[in-house]
Amino acid sequence: MALLRKINQVLLFLLIMTVCGILYKKVHKGTVPRNETDEDSEPPEEMEDEIPVVICAAAGRMGAAMAAINSIYSNTDANILFYVVGLRNTLSRIRKWIEHSKLREINFKIVEFNPIVLKGKIRPDSSRPELLQPLNFVRFYLPLLIHQHEKVIYLDDDVIVQGDIQELYDTTLALGHAAAFSDDCDLPSAQDMNRFVGLQNTYMGYLDYRKKTIKDLGISPSTCSFNPGVIVANITEWKHQRITKQLEKWMQKNVEENLYSSSLGGGVATSPMLIVFHGKYSTINPLWHIRHLGWNPDTRYSEHFLQEAKLLHWNGRHKPWDFPSVHNDLWESWFVPDPAGIFKLNHHSS
User: Which residues fall within 8 angstroms of residue 281, CB to CB, at 6 or more apart?
Assistant: First the structure.
């Protein structure tokens, strides 16, 4: 009897262990991430194949960011992850605009930018106060916003993309370069350049060469400037070179010494980048940054040229959602109406 009882106990123990094993398998099968299973899963390349695009959505011009996003998404088959950056009081509106419009299909993350990081680094300037708004400096802090990507595209909100964004993402960055920009001397022709009266395309237009600190940089005032409204950035190299810290240093120097101001050509965000990246950046294909569309409402590019362009940028005061402006029909074709009815177009001719 004792032997039989012993056998029954062993069998019961084995039965319990078998049931536990089955339950364990079932529970843990459900918790394994899809891209980590061996069968019936997507290849683990999704993160590598994602193209991260950073764009800011400011309260008064949120429609600009939505139009830019729409144009990018509509002209590519690539897997885009949009990082839409806003201040805390706009985050719910950004989400509503995306989720209650044709943009609901996009892959996106909403990122809050805390302007406290700018405290003591921006000099008050009344000539163009819109250039001092916090989101204008998001491009300085890309590594703080983007963590899991090696390469990132940053775009100003007043752009429209007509080409496949994959091409821009494939821009080659030279060894040791943390970013690629468009040179301001790469406009299609001198004839086009001459139409933009007063346009600055050298360092002289951005930095105050009367100041010793600027002179001591040893940069010729006739050096061609670049436009940081379109950036292809290597985040690893950016962190390695401590680019953000360098930019902040020059922001603080400007507060102390007034080395540049928005009364000069490009405002307060371009100037520190010109200093930090001087001689240390790669270049973007000129067709991927056709700019100055917002410079003068009486100046137009040829329609044929605009059709060839991959990216259009309305930098300047004359935005395509406002009046007066030029080539606004190209921008308006990508406009996504505001579900809340707050953002409205202003194209009245009188």
Answer: 177, 178, 179, 180, 181, 226
Say which residue the tokens 């809340």 belong to: 340
Can you list the positions of beta strands (E) in the chain?
A: 51-56, 80-86, 107-112, 151-155, 159-161, 179-183, 226-234, 282-283, 311-313
Identify whether the C-beta of residue 247 lies closer than 8 Å to the C-beta of residue 214: no
pLDDT digits (tens, 9 = 90+) for 2-23: 555 656 665 555 556 665 555 4
Residues 129, 122: Cα–Cα separation, whole Å: 11
List the one residue out of 310, 327, 117 whose CA is nearest residue 230.
Answer: 310
What global pTM score does this model have? 0.83
Closest CA to 263 of 134, 122, 129: 129
Peptide bond into 320 cis (omega under 30): no
Helices 91-99 and 62-74: crossing angle in degrees, nearest 10, is 40
Helices and strands counted in the chain (H then E)? 13, 9
Give the list of residues 6+ apart from residue 237 with CB closer than 8 angstroms, or none: 173, 176, 177, 178
Angstrom distance (rounded) from CA 17 to CA 156? 61
Higher pLDDT, 195 or 67: 67
Do 186 and 283 meet the contact criterion of CB atoms below 8 Å apart?
yes
Cα–Cα distance, 63 to 66 (Å, whole number):
5
pLDDT band at 124 (very low <50, low <70, confident <90, very high): confident
Fold of 51-187+198-333: Spore Coat Polysaccharide Biosynthesis Protein SpsA; Chain A (3.90.550)
